[in-house]
């Protein structure tokens, strides 16, 4: 990724020039230098001049509420007062910078501000005092993220998605990858964190979402085809999730048989449709029995092994008849799971039957 590498080299050079000038002016010892970022690395494709990168082992990136999108470096240099080489586990947020700098510079703030001072930790005189930190992201991201909020208290982090009310819970000390959603096992903790998040939103007057009456989910194309891409799915359960580009572009981690997905779509011209899936399945995971339902219509099929979860092939699973125009919901569930995972699912299409 030459463009990304060149940007990082330019950033390094720029920081070097600033630090060199401080040395030249003999200001290094008593100048506070802070290096941080407003979001995690871009993990999705945005264009020829905005390549993606990997935030591994953290999940996703810019535009998402997972750690790859919000966990960033925070490096502080102040030779006169801050001991070099320290690595702190304290939770910090960008809103902490104002109260921190004010305390370090002995400047009294005229009003109460968001954030907590990191000065005690930086000076080795104590810990940062706070209950939790919060995020509010009430819009759609061009990277693929959906409207939601998050709260972290200690090692526990809860994400809430505003469209559906879905909540996910992670123990970041044991699972920095956010690969194991513990919401079903820890309902009381989820409710406690959700209450904190709700109270914080009210306290700061956070703007809330309103339904869009003009929204049309997966509308029927002029040729009669209805395409439901994995990114438009609502996931239900613990592990199943949409994995975005560039590394994936699919519903994956279908390791729990009880997880399932749903899609909303619109029919303008009703009729009989063939159900086509674009799916991949690794060796040893084939033959999962899957059921697809649209209202009273039902299609059952067995998953075919394709040689790999990212080796996608089309499959006609069956037919459904939709007799009226309007909005529908498609549910897809696994009835059995003989292998490690059900499948990776990239899209479902309803093709007008001849």
Keywords summarizing the entry:
4-stranded antiparallel beta sheet, alpha+beta, 5 helices, elongated, 30% strand, 354 residues
Describe what this molecule looks like in 3D.
The chain is an alpha+beta fold and 354 residues long. Among the domains are: 2-97, no CATH class; 226-352, Galactose-binding domain-like (Jelly Rolls), CATH 2.60.120. The protein has 5 helices and 17 strands. The chain is elongated, with a radius of gyration of 25 Å.
Q: How many β strands by DSSP?
A: 17
CATH topology of the domain at 226-352: Jelly Rolls
Share of β-strand residues: 25-35%
In CATH terms, what is the architecture of the domain at 226-352? Sandwich
| Text of the CATH class of the domain at 226-352 | Mainly Beta
Instruction: Summarize the helix and strand pattern as letters.
Output: HEHEHHEEEEHEEEEEEEEEEE
Neighbour order of strands in the largest sheet: 8-11-16-13-14
- The number of distinct helices, counting runs of at least 4 residues, comes to 5
Name of the CATH superfamily of the domain at 226-352: Galactose-binding domain-like
- Termini, distance in Å? 47 Å
Mean pLDDT across all amino acids:
94
Low-confidence stretches: none
Give the radius of gyration: 25 Å
Shape: elongated
């Amino acid at each position: 990724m030459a463009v990304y590498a060149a940007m990082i080299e330019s950033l390094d050079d720029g920081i070097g020039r600033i630090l060199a000038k401080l040395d030249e002016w003999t200001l290094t010892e008593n100048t506070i230098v802070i290096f941080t970022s407003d979001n995690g690395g871009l993990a999705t494709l945005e264009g020829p001049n905005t390549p993606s990168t990997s935030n591994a082992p953290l999940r996703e990136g810019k535009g998402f509420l997972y750690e790859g999108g919000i966990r960033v470096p925070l490096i502080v240099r102040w030779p006169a007062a801050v001991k070099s080489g320290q690595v702190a586990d304290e939770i910090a947020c960008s809103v902490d910078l104002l109260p921190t700098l004010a305390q370090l510079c002995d400047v009294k703030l005229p009003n109460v501000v968001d954030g907590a001072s990191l000065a005690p930790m930086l000076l080795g005189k104590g810990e940062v005092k706070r209950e939790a930190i919060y995020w509010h992201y009430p819009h759609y991201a061009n990277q693929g993220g959906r409207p939601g909020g998050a709260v972290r208290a200690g090692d526990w982090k809860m994400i809430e998605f505003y469209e559906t009310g879905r909540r996910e819970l992670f123990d970041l000390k044991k699972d920095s990858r956010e690969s194991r959603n513990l919401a079903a096992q820890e309902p009381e903790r989820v409710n406690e964190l959700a209450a904190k998040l709700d109270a914080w939103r009210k306290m700061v007057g956070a703007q809330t979402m309103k339904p869009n009456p003009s929204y049309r989910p997966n509308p029927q194309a002029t040729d009669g085809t209805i395409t439901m891409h994995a990114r438009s799915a609502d996931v239900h359960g613990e592990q199943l999730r949409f994995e975005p580009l560039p590394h994936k572009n699919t519903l994956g981690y279908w390791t729990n048989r009880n997880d399932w997905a749903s899609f909303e779509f619109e029919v303008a011209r009703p009729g009989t449709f063939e159900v086509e899936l674009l799916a991949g399945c690794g060796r040893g995971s084939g033959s999962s029995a899957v059921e697809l339902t649209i209202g009273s219509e039902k299609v059952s099929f067995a998953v075919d092994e394709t040689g790999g979860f990212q080796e996608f092939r089309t499959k006609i699973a069956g037919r459904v008849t939709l007799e009226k125009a309007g909005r529908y919901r498609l549910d897809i569930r696994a009835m059995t799971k003989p292998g490690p995972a059900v499948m990776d699912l990239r899209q479902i299409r309803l093709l007008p039957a001849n």
